[in-house]
Amino acid sequence: MNAVATVVHAVDVTPWEMPTLDYRLLAPVLIVLGAGVVSVLFEAFLPRGVRRPVQLTLVFVTLIAALVAVINLNGVRETAGQGALAIDGPGLILQGAVVVIAILGALLMAERGLDPNGDAFAARASSLPGSEDERQFTARGYFQTEIWAFFLFAVGGMMLFPIANDLLMMFVALEVMSLPLYLLAGMARRRRLLSQEAALKYFVLGAFASAFFLYGAALLYGFSGSISFGEIAASLGSKTGETALILIAIGLVVAGVLFKIGAAPFHQWVPDVYQGAPTPVTGFMAAAVKIAAFGALLRLLYVALGGMRWDWTPMLWVISILTMFVGAILALTQSDIKRMIAYSSIAQAGFILLGVVAVSAKGLEGAIFYLIAYAFTTIGVFAIISMVRDENGEATHLSKWAGLGRQSPVIATLFTIFMLALTGIPLTSGFIGKFAVFSAAYASGDKWLVIAAVVASLIAAFFYMRVVVLMFFTEPNEETAIVAIPSIFTTIALAAAATVTVLLGVVPQPLLDLIANAGVFIR
Amino acid sequence: MNSFPWLTVLGLVPLIGSVVVALLPKSMPLLAKQLAFAISLVVLGLVVVMALQFDGQSEFVFQFQESYDWIPAFGVTYSLGVDGIALVLIALSAVLVPITILAGWNDVEQPQSDSVGSVKGYFALILLLETMMIGVFAATDVFLFYVFFEAMLIPVYFMIGRYGGAQRSYAAMKFLIYSLVGGLFMLAAMIGLYVVTGTFNFTQILLGAGIDANTQKILFLGFFLAFAIKAPMWPFHTWLPDAAAASKPGTAVLLIGVLDKVGTFGMIRYCLPIFPAASDFYAPVIIALAVIGVFYGAFVALGQNDLKRLFAYSSMSHFGFIILGIFVFTTIGISGATVYMIAHGLSTAALFLTAGYLMQRRNGSSLLSDYSGVNKPAPVLAGFFLFAALSSLALPGLVSFVGEFMVLLGTFQRYMWVGGIATLGIVITAAYVLRVYQKSMTGAVGSGLEHIKDLTGREISALVPIAALTIFLGLYPAPVLNVINPAVNTVMVMVGATDPAPTVGLISTTSQGAQQ
Fold it and tell me: NADH:quinone oxidoreductase/Mrp antiporter transmembrane domain: which residues (chain B) (predicted)?
């Protein structure tokens, strides 16, 4: 915190004074990041045998404490950390959502009942894939518990991202969130080369995107003389004329965040990373990064760049349409379920962008609702993907899902519910989410964007329903995968995901109220 | 008005029944069937009791109203209520469900069926579908209507895809995608309607300031496309023959007999009153498409060798008449269209069920060329088949005649020439219907058909109520007309149409005769 505060002051002309930090406001983030440090210490000093129970206890206690801390801030609407952080309704809701999704994600990552060799992570990420070392580590039953430290740091970054109120804090949050995820993506126990390739790709492209962000941030700072969102907004409002450079700056900054969202044309990493990363990590990442990054994007666009909306909405129009169609059309051609869901997540990002483009309170609310609904559904989807297995681990090829409805009707039914939600069929959360963002966009006059989204939904329906056809309308054959019986961890996560998906479709009002009462971003 | 939540209860009973049936152990298929049948009879009983309390003279358009907030953030209410048209369609659903269950008693039995689903699943889906059907007709909130409209697809999708014939997977997907095309454009139009009017409540939309004519023209298209695909109207029909051919007879009865009526119902309930100017604007095009549909369906039916496809095309032809009746904007036309919906539901049920009985006796073959001379080994089956055929071609004395006659009469009142052309459609209908009967039932007994069994008691008891209703309402349509006429008058007022002054004395006398 201090480092950041110093930076803030470096650009200030007023004499240096001791920054005041309200620890209550920072508590949620500090709890999680602090626990991350503790987790590293545990790794260093605890004997191997007790690490797992200790780390798991730490993770769940931390996340629950963070959730309590977030709830405790209910109603707060002020800036903290010398203006670097904005604690306001939308920010807190997004933080809360990240924590809840992190709990479900942690449940998936803690699962050890599915893979006969243990969990979803490599015994030693440093051992060469296919080497004697690897075999030895696996045979001796080694496990990696460092994942929990990475996980906590990533969660901390995600909680920081949507409340970051200046460019530098946003960049720090982006990196704190991303770096552990790059590592986690490369740690799959099975198909390790694919996993490592995914991690490297994610890292290289992610670094590239970070550079974009920094470049844009530098330009914005050069223009406005401040990194704070409020002051950027003020100077954008007062000065006119230098639009070309500002537009480039906005484009670069937004592109950096759009990369994390997986919006086209910054989506290339998504399918590879989703496929290569260990499935629990994919599920957690797909759900939580979307929440955090969309939160950051919304704050960036609505608070710092709100005055320039007429300049950036056309750009987002194009990106939104492109994202929807690229995601939906490419998903049609996939034969691997993880890749298919990856492209689906791209398409879904396009739908959520409709709420962003609306530039209204309704759009903000719709986007937040959609994000939460989507996150739970996604966790459920990946929970099931991690359970459908054959002798080589997860059976992700679609042909292996044929006839699953006959063998495991309950799991197939749950998966169908998730697919219906992603399609946007009424009585699921996905429909209410779609309705919320579509109506916000329509009300803001983006009629044709809604029409485009409707067409994209239709294309998307085709591949979502194809899985249902496979599971229910075809006979099982000898290729058909088996649904492994998970331990209590995955079971809880799956049950929660399914319950929320249906509940938000039938009685969405409480959550809608919560979001509406949260108001808009503090300026 | 009474405070008992009739419509909610009507919807809940089959829903709970569906869950209970689905939870039964797989080893008890008989219990599942019996339970499903009993529940559908309870629903029918409830509908009868409710219908008896319906006040045909009431000044309230909607009766048995219920309204609760559902999603206030979007202005969505859980509002139910029925006018006469909705009431008769709910009654039609409630009648057809037990009949379908009874007729389809052994349709999904393993292992003779090629379906992949369990027996209890099929009956649970039928009950679930009944909930949706009641909901879609009873909803008086556009959003709620849409929820049922879309959610309804799911049980049907599974009924076709899991329990259908060889092409079931393809047909189910085609059905779903076609329906979603309509549904999603309707969603866009519905959002537009909400943005323009600020509410989803049907009554409030009508009470509010009218929508500007140009906006109407755009929003109308979204709604109409959904209904035209659902109905289906030419040229949005291609999913229907595939779906019908791949379905079990029971599925086809509910699909064509009831579900497709949601399309024509939606036109009367939503398109006309909410978008009067647009309805008027598009009417000529729609009438032209409807007439094309009448002939297209009939001609294709004439050349079909697959019985299920033949009936699907024939239905398309009938839907042409119904849509024609709606968009001529005459009281008698819209009343006629409603009666036609009932009549078509009954005659479709009779046709598909008898054809289903027939096919079951010959390893499920639906090819017309496989059958001949059935009336010798199975006279009762042939008799019911003839009855169904005559009901389809609108023999005077049967309810389909009342509907068809009124529709044509209404058309004549407004567009003499269109009426004249459409009437020719009846001739072709007679041609293909009688051709089917002649080929399959009369003549020398086909090989392999010599020893087929005649209808069993269960099979007959499923057909008798249909036949009885067809004849009763054909001779005495007043109970239905009395209930629907006030609703039709309201629609006419809202759409701003008045019946053309009678120019020929004969027509006006007949029209009054038919209305009584």
Answer: 139-429
